[in-house]
Amino acid sequence: MASIAPTIGRVAKSTSKSHSRNFAKVFLGVAGSAAVATYFYNNNNKNNNNNQSNSNGPRHALMSLFGGSAANVKVAKIPDGKTQADYQKVYNDIATKIAENLEFDHNSGYYGQLLRLAWHVSGTYDKSDNSGGSYGGTQIFAPEEFDPENAGLQVGREFLMEFLIRYPWISRGDLWTLGGVAAVQESGGPKIEWRPGRVDDNTAAHVPPNGRLPDASKDGKYVREIFSRQGFNERETVALIGAHVLGRCHTHNSGYDGPWGPSFNQFTNVFYTTLLGNWHVKNWKGKKQYEDDETNEFMMLPTDMALKEESYFLKYVKMYANDQDLFFKDFAKAFAKLISNGVKYPADNKPMYFKTLEEQDDS
Ligand code: HEM
């Protein structure tokens, strides 16, 4: 069987610092409420952007493309005068805060938390009517906020909250997706193409319904359907789920428990090499999940195991297990697509790539 214990550069020290659920104070906690009020004030006054359509020209063209609903026209609009240098500053602040909190959550750091946040705010997308997705920053509104699949993500939103205050011109959708980019790059993953201009929808009029984010107890067919609704094929689906290399499951969020493998704070292709090892159903009172035969320390969700069970997924699992560069290339492309799903970028909105903190130290 494939070894599940590769050498990981940034190894986890054991720590008594527990996974602090104090962070999990709700978005509108006492200390946060003034800040939130300031934030909403600023946001409602910037760019007149509290609705989703910005101009009539592209809007009409898009209306016909997406079945005639003006609500689902999502044209990116960069805040006045902002350039890549401004967004690099925000990136640097997020990356610095990540680096200052490496012991968080059993030494997972915030990589997993921020990557999952970026995925869940984007993964509500439905290509059939261009609804959902990262554009409107709707995850602070019911019912999306209280979707059981989003349990625990207030931790990531709260982590990023100070940057909404410090940079009042940035939208929630831009900040949350930028957080995901920082998580991947700062943990050693590939460069991710990112574009600005998502516009806050503070009317809460276009909040996607619950049920669009995947339920981990399901099978491969279901996984294929969920990702196909967002416009992904099987190869992209397998590449995206490789994100489970980072972070861990928490019984208080999902009912599942533990990290997927030993690379939980470093972005690598180890999710696939681990998955190709031998697994058995964990003997416990919790939800059905799998445990590795070798160490009993790692876990897989039923939907992760489905990638091994279905031939239309398995070939890509093997491909990425054998070739980390290929995984990085495919993941970067699929993740950039995920975080921009539904957003229409005008021609002058060019892709941005951010330097990691390490690259900036070197230069
Ligand atoms: C079939 C698809 C998927 C299912 C069923 C699924 C399910 C889950 C579950 C149940 C958790 C544990 C949450 C917790 O207990 O805190 C989790 C965590 C996570 N997921 Fe997924 N996921 C899927 C796809 C993805 C994708 C596409 C990404 C990113 C591109 C992703 C990134 C993550 C990350 C980074 C974590 C760790 C969070 C942390 O450390 O707090 N997942 N996922």
TrEMBL record:
<dbReference type="GO" id="GO:0005759">
    <property type="term" value="C:mitochondrial matrix"/>
</dbReference>
<dbReference type="Pfam" id="PF00141">
    <property type="entry name" value="peroxidase"/>
</dbReference>
<keyword id="KW-0575">Peroxidase</keyword>
<comment type="subunit">
    <text>Forms a one-to-one complex with cytochrome c.</text>
</comment>
<keyword id="KW-0349">Heme</keyword>
<feature type="domain" description="Plant heme peroxidase family profile">
    <location>
        <begin position="170"/>
        <end position="363"/>
    </location>
</feature>
<keyword id="KW-0479">Metal-binding</keyword>
<dbReference type="InterPro" id="IPR044831">
    <property type="entry name" value="Ccp1-like"/>
</dbReference>
<dbReference type="InterPro" id="IPR002207">
    <property type="entry name" value="Peroxidase_I"/>
</dbReference>
<dbReference type="GO" id="GO:0046872">
    <property type="term" value="F:metal ion binding"/>
</dbReference>
<dbReference type="GO" id="GO:0004130">
    <property type="term" value="F:cytochrome-c peroxidase activity"/>
</dbReference>
<dbReference type="InterPro" id="IPR010255">
    <property type="entry name" value="Haem_peroxidase_sf"/>
</dbReference>
<dbReference type="GO" id="GO:0020037">
    <property type="term" value="F:heme binding"/>
</dbReference>
<protein>
    <recommendedName>
        <fullName>Peroxidase</fullName>
        <ecNumber>1.11.1.-</ecNumber>
    </recommendedName>
</protein>
<dbReference type="GO" id="GO:0042744">
    <property type="term" value="P:hydrogen peroxide catabolic process"/>
</dbReference>
<comment type="function">
    <text>Destroys radicals which are normally produced within the cells and which are toxic to biological systems.</text>
</comment>
<dbReference type="InterPro" id="IPR002016">
    <property type="entry name" value="Haem_peroxidase"/>
</dbReference>
<comment type="similarity">
    <text>Belongs to the peroxidase family. Cytochrome c peroxidase subfamily.</text>
</comment>
<dbReference type="GO" id="GO:0034599">
    <property type="term" value="P:cellular response to oxidative stress"/>
</dbReference>
<keyword id="KW-0408">Iron</keyword>
<keyword id="KW-0560">Oxidoreductase</keyword>
<keyword id="KW-0809">Transit peptide</keyword>
<dbReference type="GO" id="GO:0000302">
    <property type="term" value="P:response to reactive oxygen species"/>
</dbReference>
<keyword id="KW-0496">Mitochondrion</keyword>
<dbReference type="GO" id="GO:0005758">
    <property type="term" value="C:mitochondrial intermembrane space"/>
</dbReference>
